[in-house]
Amino acid sequence: MTIAMFRAMFLSLLNDRGALAMAFLLPIVFFLLLAEIFSGAAGTELQLRAVIVDEVDNELSQRLVKALRDGGALVAVGDEGMSRNQAVLLVRKGTADVGLVIRADARAIDDVGGFGDPPILIISDPARAVASLMLTGQVQQAYFEALPDVAIGSVAQMIGDQFVEFDAQQQADLDEGIAEMRVDAMAGEQSGWSFGEMLDTQTVAGRSAATNHVAYYAGAVAFLFLLFASMQGAISLAEEQESGILDRIMAGPGGVAVLVNGKFLFLVAQGFVQMLLIFCVAWQVYGVDLPANYLSWLVVTLVACCAAAGLSLFVAAACRTRVQAQNLSTILILILSVVGGSMVPRFFMPQWLRELGWLTPNTWAIEAYSGIFWRDQLLSDVMLPCLLLAALGTFCLGGAQILAARRARI
Amino acid sequence: MAITSEPVLEIRDARRGFAERKALCEVSLTVAAGEILSLLGPNGAGKTTLMRAAAGRLRLDAGTARVVGRDPARDHLARRALGIVPQSIALYPHLTARENLDVFARLMGLKGKQVKQAVALGLKRSGLADRANDLLTDLSGGMQRRLNIIAATLHEPRLLLLDEPTVGVDVNAREAIHALLHDLRDAGMGMLLTTHDFEQADSLADRVAFMLDGVIVAEGRVDELVTSVFGTAKELVVSLDHPADDAAQAVLQSFELRPMRDQRLWSGPLTGGYEELPEIEQKLEQSGLHAAEIRLRDPGLNGVFLHLTGREADS
């Protein structure tokens, strides 16, 4: 009899092409979109769109602008020879993320300790404050790489002024060395001064570092749609109550257990197929290593599906009408998904919100999937979120049965 | 008609209250195998509450409900002997007629060959064998109603509970449903059905029970009930232009007429037949009453209910 209920849900889905597409096609499209959007934001391919205005237009400023343009970290937008006001307009319109002006009305670029306004102005939109910080870093790097003679000359001048006075020979050697640096820099050769040489990077990611964020979104988006599909399926419980199917089934020998268990099984199966499709796409398109972790994935996916199915049935059983169930489940999914990290990555969130996320099944599922595919953890390492998901599914399933039985009797 | 003496439903002294309201007051009734009992009464009379008690879906404050001698609230054998036809179409809209019957046969505990046989019989009984593979939403309202009924009979229940089984269908579809229900009755199924439609009860039911304010005010065969109120008399119906005032009411009551609606429509038995009509009309005119219509008709359940309760069924 439980299988009969499963069959009713299955055939209903199969005969409804719209619902079929919603259940299995939309999640993949959504995942691909989010993966593309956020992998750019979180990954290494992020390029700033910057408008650069060189009001000075001398040899030094040209060198700096060329270094910025050739650095590869930003995309120059706007025409050469633009005015400062035009640059401000481009940033305000969002055509450029940030603007940079080498000012004619300030002290010169090589006048490090002098008086007057700073020679470089960054035009920033508060909505994209991080862009100005990134550009500041790019300018510092370009300054040291493209104008090493200016940098060394300024430091030497400060040492001469404040610490040790150079004698004539020393000063001559210094001037000669700085002149050589200038020639090298103008020729585009590295002249021994690059801040990049001070830095090295060690990644703490797993085997497939390039696909880490995709693995995050596969888990996050998959669980979001798992909740959507499960809630949609579970709402049929309220529909069946309204249409009288519940009355009919309650009069049968199986009673409410058949109804709730049959739906639970179907929702778990439907969710499993959804998750499989999304992770297969993540594997084929982005190289998320599903085959190497299939056993851990299987366990996490099953408990995630149980949690989503149980929670959805509990919500549906707690509501008196279809409309009530629809509204409540939509609100619940949105809150759980926002706080839990399905919509906005958890690593973008403030600390208190990350901690709050641990109250949501989304976070448990995301942490479990991230553990497997991102941090190369074993199944035993992600046992806590798995147990939490399994416990939620079990308790909610029991609760749904009690509520549905109570609803069916007056 | 295939009525046997064995009751498939027996309700004794059932009482149930909701807050201050008494939904059932010492209600007793029985339905025999092969018998259709129609529950008639206005909204809020207690019909649905009684049906729920019969289905074991409601705890009685006192009294008992038994299906084939067992408690439907506790005994799965009692529920196995029960089929429920809700008022709305309690079927899956995205399933075909055959798929719906298949699902409900399995939900009622049938397996393997039993399912196939039950589905085939159900399609045949409902006259939908040639539409078996159509989605429910592609069937007409009448077809959906027939399928709604048949879905409750796949496990061959001894008792069928039907809530307004013909609501919202046209005359032809209603006739087809009546024929289906008579077939099921003739196959030995006992039925308890609720309806507002006195004409339907008249043509469909073997017995009727009038409910009002949680009480069964009269119960019996249709012809017996009519005879008990009207004897051999016809029913006189007087339709007035405007509500009768006190003086007019006295005149109308002198003819043993009772008001049906807004003091405009009056009804009562008339033993004398058509010969009395001119005299009645004359007396009404003399009393200053203008009757828009005076007619005689064969008395029916509506008139019985009016005279037993002083109310119309849909009031």
Q: Could you explain the architecture of this structure?
A:
The complex is a heterodimer of chains A (410) and B (315). Chain A folds into 2 domains: 16-36 and 209-409, no CATH class; 47-203. In chain A, 67% of the residues lie in helices and 5% in strands. Chain A is built from 17 helices and 4 strands. Chain A has helices at 2-15, 17-24, 26-42, 59-70, 84-93, 129-146, 148-162, 168-186, 212-234, 236-243, 245-251, 255-286, 294-318, 322-340, 351-357, 361-373, 383-408; strands at residues 48-54, 74-77, 98-102, 120-124. A 4-stranded mixed beta sheet of chain A has the order 2-1-3-4, with helices on both faces. In chain A, strand 1 (48-54), helix 4 (59-70) and strand 2 form a beta-alpha-beta unit. In chain A, helix 9 packs antiparallel against helix 12 and helix 9 packs antiparallel against helix 16. The longest helix of chain A is centred in the middle third of the chain and has 32 residues, at 255-286. The radius of gyration of chain A is 30 Å and the shape is elongated. The mean pLDDT of chain A is 84. Chain B folds into 2 domains: 7-225, P-loop containing nucleotide triphosphate hydrolases (Rossmann fold, 3-Layer(aba) Sandwich), CATH 3.40.50; 234-298, 2-Layer Sandwich (Alpha-Beta Plaits). Chain B has helices spanning 47-54, 76-80, 97-107, 112-126, 141-150, 171-186, 198-204, 222-230, 246-254, 277-286, 301-309; strands at residues 7-18, 21-32, 36-40, 62-67, 82-85, 159-163, 190-195, 207-212, 215-221, 234-240, 258-261, 265-270, 291-297. In chain B, helix 3 (97-107) packs across helix 4 (112-126). Chain B is α/β, with parallel strands linked by helices. Chain A binds chain B through residues 1, 3-5, 7-8, 11-13, 15-16, 19, 240, 242-245, 247-255, 258, 408-410, and chain B through 52, 55-59, 72, 76, 79-80, 82-84, 86-96, 99, 102-109, 135, 151-152, 155, 163.
